Amino acid sequence: MRKRRSRSAALLGMLVLVCVLALLGIAGGLIALNLRPSGNTVPIGFDLHVNPDLNPVEAAALGTYLSLNEDALQTPMSSDPVSASFEVVAGESATDVADGLQAAGLISDTTLFRYYLRYYGLDSQLEAGIYHLSATMTIPEIALVLTNAASSDIEFRITEGWRREQIADAVDANLELTFSGADFLAATGPGAAVPETIASELPPGASLEGFLFPDTYRLPQNAVADDLVQRMLANFEERVTPQMRADAETGGLTLYQAVTLASIVERETAVPDERPLVAGVYLNRLAIGMNLQADPTVQYAMGYQPDTGQWWNLTLTQDDYQTVDSPYNTYLYPGLPPGPIANPSLGAIEAVIYPAQTDYLFFRAACDGGGRHSFAVTFEEHIANACP
Fold first, then answer.
1. pLDDT attached to residue 19
2. What is the pLDDT of residues 166-177, one digit of tens each?
């Protein structure tokens, strides 16, 4: 009798094992079949692995459930691309997060979301933070984002040659930022908090124009204007090395003067290899007491142009050179303008500190429209370079 029971138990165990293996095989086949791209379905596309903590039966059950619900898994809630803020609070469970996502209109099936997290072991990897999510995202996309709080950072790009007001406009245009352009202008105006190595370079009453290093910055959610400003200043401090500052002094320029001239060079040419030539022309003019006669300084003095909605008047007239009465107008006033007119790139700053050594005193736009310039030593040569 006992032998029969032992044999029965052994047969039952083998039967259970066979069933489990069969289920795993079926689940694996279904997953492989359903998770590969087909038709208009968007594949998961993430390098994920089945949670090793799952027992074989649970893994098989979850895998089968996900494969049978693949269409729902890969179908977003809507086609509305508007993003919404979603917060994962420290200590929240996968169920709490799923309920929150459903309440926010980002997913429709909390069970499917939880099972997806559980199957891939993502339920233990959810990170607290504020995220920008969209109803156009699928469950796999949302799940992966919520495991990386750094992905919720806001990316903000500042272009070389922008003036402070342009950066402020870009701040206002970025709906993810919680501070305004006015906040940014206040944080970069006279009296702003700056590192001593920069503060010692600024004349009284100067703004941070010129030292707001152009780059792409990542800001945390709920950042304030000073968070951006301090990153920009730290970037400037790192890029403009002590050796560069010493070399500028050797060349007869303070750092503030070098940045001021670099801002003009930045606005004068978009061709990187011309910057040292343009910088050399301006330094040659300064050396002989000749006015810089730089168009961007007049444009800076004119400020915002309501007719075009731009901060730079790119269609200056001969009359503008004489009637724009500002110390920034280098056609009327000798020497450098009172301060930077924009925020230059590292390349423009390097061009001023390490200029091309030439006798050029003049340059004008080349006639081929390619953005380059023709350089000349004498005014006669300059005139000869005029376009027909």
1. 53
2. 999 999 999 889
d(CA 42, CA 59) in angstroms, rounded, equals 23
CA-CA distance, 242 to 230, in Å (whole number)?
A: 19
Domain layout of the chain by residue ranges: 73-152, 154-239, 252-384
Instruction: Say yes or no to pLDDT of 82 above 70.
Output: yes
Nearest 10 degrees: Cα torsion 8, 14, 19, 24: 160
Distance between CA 187 and CA 194 in Å, rounded?
10
Q: Which residue has the tokens 């320029």?
A: 253
Residue 380 CB burial class (10 angstroms; 0-12, 13-18, ≥19) = exposed
Cα-to-chain-centroid distance, residue 145: 18
- 74 Cβ contact partners less than 8 Å away, ≥ 6 residues apart: 41, 42, 43, 44, 138, 139, 140
Q: Is 157 helix (H, G, I), strand (E, B) or coil?
A: strand
* Residues ≥6 apart with Cβ < 8 Å to 14: none
**Domain boundaries 73-152, corresponding CATH code:** 3.30.1490.480
CA distance 190 to 202: 10
C-alpha span between 231 and 276 (Å, rounded): 28
DSSP letter for 308, please: T
Name the pLDDT band for 9 (thresholds 50, 70, 90).
low
SS3 label, residue 363: strand
Q: What percent of the chain has pLDDT over 90?
A: 69
Concatenating the DSSP letter of every residue in 51-108 gives: -TTS-HHHHHHHHHHHHHTHHHHT--S-S---EEEEEEPTT--HHHHHHHHHHTTS-S
Torsion angle defined by CA atoms of residues 355, 358, 359 and 364, in that order, rounded to the nearest 10 degrees: -70
- Tokens standing for 137? 């995202």
Q: Please state at what angle helix 275-288 crosses helix 255-268, rounded to 10 degrees.
A: 120
N- to C-terminal Cα separation, the chain: 114
